[in-house]
């Protein structure tokens, strides 16, 4: 616990986040390039420093090895300057040679290209015994549009007109640097095209809806459902010419985009593809291109004055592209077998606590409760690291060819997807590498994943006060478990299949509780005129509330097993007070107004202050621990406190 951060003037019941973190909030300074900075970012930077040491040692002592060679290829700026734009010229030449819309669709299948549709192989949500090809716009992230959100293209989405003008100028500069075109009309056409594409994209609420994002169809029906896009050319270029069944997610957006695709002349698509081909490789190109890219996306868009160091960016380049090799080295000496035993014990107690909550939830009927209990019982725990990390033996890494290395690694991953589709019995690898500072839940796999990267202080340490451990990482473990039963995860059964296993009565009771939570978060206003969208953030808010609830139950089980006196004070605080302090300290964060506004508009998580205050004010145990009364600002009458389980 950071006792020096605790306020002497703010009452816990008035602003718990500030009470716990006032000293830190007053003195913390975000590193360059961070508009939002808290414990998660600090853990990331510490992990990055460890990874950097691993990579640099490999580069120095293991010449010819993939980690060292990939890092060297990123750092060899002299070789990058000598190569100029030659590494991406074949792509630019291919774009220039496109004759028809089929050629546009085929080029969009390239992993580094922008596209109106992305693809990936994963379990069929309605039948997890098989894998299917999924067609989706969510997986594209920024590789559909050049600006962050659809709002940036809309006059009604805010005052972004100056930014759009700057974006047009940026497109023109990039096309000029690559000697593609210096005609500003090309940029005008790209922005006009992206404005049309943005207008048909799904909202954040739609993107969260698991059922809405599942449209099973025969491959033969794609042309009928979404005519205008050359599906045969795209799928052939992606390596899936013979696929018979697909899952079309974001279906109506893809259908509308396909119509726009057909209506847009090929030369406009060539400008779109060429600009984004250059931009998507900019960080691996000569300094003039990198600086131009950062000037718009860093300084103008993200309000960053300076880039992170070349070494730090190189570490991230290697981490993204050889994650398992780094992970194998990272866990040695950093995540001991005893750590896995300790975190596994916590997770098992959380499952026990959840099962008890499910068994005692009076609003669940027997049929729904039976499947819910089976689901938590079967929930897999992936903690620390997997035992079958990749060695990337099939991929050639050249120390002077960063773009070639990237393309070969992506081709290798594409080949693995093809194998996975053909062999559905193959287990899916962990999607979070051991060094990742994050956790997740997969509804199809019914599994939580917590790699070693997030299992560090202040989230977790085997030598820490158990109360703080449960308040921090315990609540985050509970958060991910809760996603299996939130407004979206609850649509998947104990086998990971998307089906209605809730009775109407139980579902209605759940929806009433969820609606109350939506209303609470709708009322929060982080900046004047900027309110949290309670529906968009529902899944994460619900998971926070349930996660802390479960973690406290699990801590009480642990305390009973280990004869811990919950009333004994350490540093002046009882065990349950320390539990809540651990939760609030873990989420302490500073952010600029720009970062906060972006977070509220784009993120499914509420800002940190509301993750803390919005949860504790619903928990009776918090009121009891800190003597919160009706005279305090965060007080909610008992009948207005949301209780999910």
UniProtKB/TrEMBL annotation:
<dbReference type="InterPro" id="IPR018497">
    <property type="entry name" value="Peptidase_M13_C"/>
</dbReference>
<keyword id="KW-0862">Zinc</keyword>
<keyword id="KW-0378">Hydrolase</keyword>
<keyword id="KW-0479">Metal-binding</keyword>
<feature type="domain" description="Peptidase M13 N-terminal">
    <location>
        <begin position="12"/>
        <end position="386"/>
    </location>
</feature>
<feature type="domain" description="Peptidase M13 C-terminal">
    <location>
        <begin position="441"/>
        <end position="642"/>
    </location>
</feature>
<dbReference type="InterPro" id="IPR008753">
    <property type="entry name" value="Peptidase_M13_N"/>
</dbReference>
<dbReference type="InterPro" id="IPR000718">
    <property type="entry name" value="Peptidase_M13"/>
</dbReference>
<protein>
    <submittedName>
        <fullName>M13 family metallopeptidase</fullName>
    </submittedName>
</protein>
<dbReference type="Pfam" id="PF05649">
    <property type="entry name" value="Peptidase_M13_N"/>
</dbReference>
<dbReference type="InterPro" id="IPR042089">
    <property type="entry name" value="Peptidase_M13_dom_2"/>
</dbReference>
<dbReference type="InterPro" id="IPR024079">
    <property type="entry name" value="MetalloPept_cat_dom_sf"/>
</dbReference>
<comment type="similarity">
    <text>Belongs to the peptidase M13 family.</text>
</comment>
<keyword id="KW-0645">Protease</keyword>
<dbReference type="Pfam" id="PF01431">
    <property type="entry name" value="Peptidase_M13"/>
</dbReference>
<keyword id="KW-0482">Metalloprotease</keyword>
